[in-house]
Write a structure and sequence with these properties.
The protein has helices at about 15-40, 45-60, 60-80, 85-105, 115-135, 145-155, 160-175, 185-205, 215-225. It has about 230 residues and is mainly α. α3 runs parallel beside α6 (about 145-155).
Length: about 230
């Protein structure tokens, strides 16, 4: 479950600059991962299936669908009593903007062969995993979907893992019904991503459960006292 950190008595602005840098880098890297998986054309990860379905149904861009979904997840989490951080808002807005920028610019062409698709898919999953590790190491707030998962676990009394699995299944089904792409890539992502994420956490030398995430009030209070 998400824990919230109390700021130190003498916060350092340089420390916050480093943390915000990791937050932005991680968010941009996850956006790159999403676009790589999208351009692999083998089927999307669970939430991206939903975003693509919403894109087709509502007539919005993929990035806008990501922002709307993240905002809805955050509102539901807030309604259930879960806090959020500066990083949560950054995750919602910046990731969606970056996805649309990469798609509109044609920076990553659509895969033209199976080997290229597999390369895109694996590279995309690694970008997602490493970007998530960078983002979480900033300790500036959990992502909106993570916040909703924790809130559901508290409300239902079920484990966080069970709530996340149930939510992923539901959003995948809803996205597929709206026209999102479900395929081999969806299954490969479901099977491999968890292990890849754990490997990246070990590579960076920290456990996500050991990190205390700051909420917005704590971050603003700490920055207000930094350098005093």
């Amino acid at each position: 479950m998400t824990r919230h950190a109390a700021p130190t008595s003498r916060p350092d602005r340089r420390d916050y600059f480093s943390r915000f840098s990791r937050l932005v880098a991680g968010t941009l890297l996850t956006a790159l991962g999403v676009v790589l998986i999208l351009q692999a054309d083998m089927g999307l990860d669970s939430w991206s299936v939903f975003h693509q379905g919403l894109e087709k149904t509502a007539g919005v861009s993929f990035g806008t669908a990501s922002v709307l979904t993240g905002a809805l997840a955050l509102l539901l989490a807030l309604w259930m009593g879960e806090a959020f951080g500066v990083g949560t808002l950054c995750n919602i807005v910046l990731c969606g903007i970056a996805i649309d920028f990469l798609c509109a610019g044609g920076w990553i062409p659509l895969s033209a062969s199976l080997p290229q698709s597999l390369l895109y898919l694996l590279a995309g999953m690694e970008c997602l995993a490493f970007g998530t590790c960078l983002y979480m190491s900033s300790r500036l707030g959990s992502g909106p979907r993570d916040a909703l998962t924790v809130a559901l676990a508290r409300r239902t009394g079920r484990s966080v893992g069970a709530c996340r699995t149930a939510m992923d299944v539901l959003v995948t089904l809803a996205g597929w019904l709206m026209g999102g792409r479900f395929g081999p890539g969806t299954l490969l992502t479901a099977l491999l991503f968890g292990g890849l994420l754990g490997w990246n956490f070990r590579l960076m030398g920290f456990a996500p459960a050991s990190l205390a995430q700051e909420n917005c009030r704590e971050t603003l209070r700490a920055l207000g006292g930094a350098g005093e």
